Amino acid sequence: MFECVINVSEGRDAPRLSRLDVASGASLRDRHSDTFHHRSVFTLINEAEALVADVRSLIEASLDELDLTGHVGVHPRLGVVDVVPFVALETNRAARACALRDETAQWLAAAFSVPCFLYGPVGDHVRTLPEIRRRAFRDLVPDVGPPATHPRWGATAVGCRPLLVAWNLWLEGLSLKDARSLAAALRRPALRTLALPVGGAVQISCNLIDVSALRLSQVYDEILAALPPGARVQRAELVGLAPAALLALEDPARLGQLGLSSERTIESRL
Questions:
Q1: Which residue, among 224, 69, 85, has the nearest Cα to 154 in the 3D structure?
Q2: What are phi and psi of 6, to 5 degrees?
Q3: Which architecture does CATH list for 2-160?
Q4: Ordered mean pLDDT values, 10 residues apiece, the chain (270 residues)
Q5: Of the four listed, 1, 80, 205, 263, which is most buried by Cβ atoms within 10 Å?
Q6: CA of 130: how far to CAs of 1, 134, 135, 233, 241, in Å?
């Protein structure tokens, strides 16, 4: 089985998102949408052939429905179909996940003239998604497709990677400047963070990229300890699905506080 977690630059139009759900086919296991980010995360899981068919269907529907012109949201974005990562749920099939990445990027560039940047193993090094966001169209040219961003659809980062857990903490009583300092202090090889304004609050957006190296409760407690008087954690939010092994590492009494539940695991949706 393979997972593909497609990030699309639309998080507000419910009828449109429902049409994209339908386009995702039987592979769709979860969809998380956020109005402040103006972004949705579609989690698709299936065997390779069926997954690729549904991934292409969702991408085609997104390009048909959406236009990056005038898009405003707090999350960084390259394009309408912003990020397309493939994940092998069986670790011995990682090479096949990278082959699915390459095939998808070639198809997207050829069919729609959308420039694609690859991440994960690329040549003799591992390129990260933050590296693409920093360097795209500056000193990094697309790996496939035209050299310039598409006027309507932008560009797409297509990757292959291990399991990743996306998780947000919503904070009150903290300035964006202080939240950015806190996010920077939290970063480490296993954890990527951003601080973003969300309405009247701020958010620490976390990507746990090594689920065996760090528990979410550790991150929560570090943030809590660093908050100034009067600031508080409003809530925690899981984006997409998490492996059941992640929940097993946590005190069951804290799962609600951490925004985790057995109903939002990969295993529960298969």
A1: 69
A2: -90, 125
A3: 2-Layer Sandwich (3.30)
A4: 98 98 98 96 98 98 95 93 97 96 98 98 95 97 98 98 96 95 96 93 95 94 96 96 95 97 96
A5: 80
A6: 26, 6, 9, 26, 21
Angle at the Cα of 208 (from 194 to 100), degrees rounded to 5? Answer: 105
Encoding tokens for residue 9?
Answer: 């630059």
| Start-to-end C-alpha separation, the chain | 10
CATH architecture of 165-269: 2-Layer Sandwich (3.30)
Please identify which residue in the block is written with the tokens 């528990």: 215
Please give the model's pTM, rounded to 2 decimal places: 0.95
The answer to whether the beta carbons of residues 268 and 262 sit under 8 Å apart is yes
- Residues 233, 223 contacting (CB under 8 angstroms): yes
For the stretch 127-143, what's the b/e string if a residue is b when 16 or more beta carbons lie within 10 angstroms of its beta carbon?
bbbebbbeebeeeeebb
Residue 59, phi-psi category: left (phi > 0), alpha (psi -120 to 50), beta (remainder): alpha
Per-domain boundaries in the chain? 2-160, 165-269
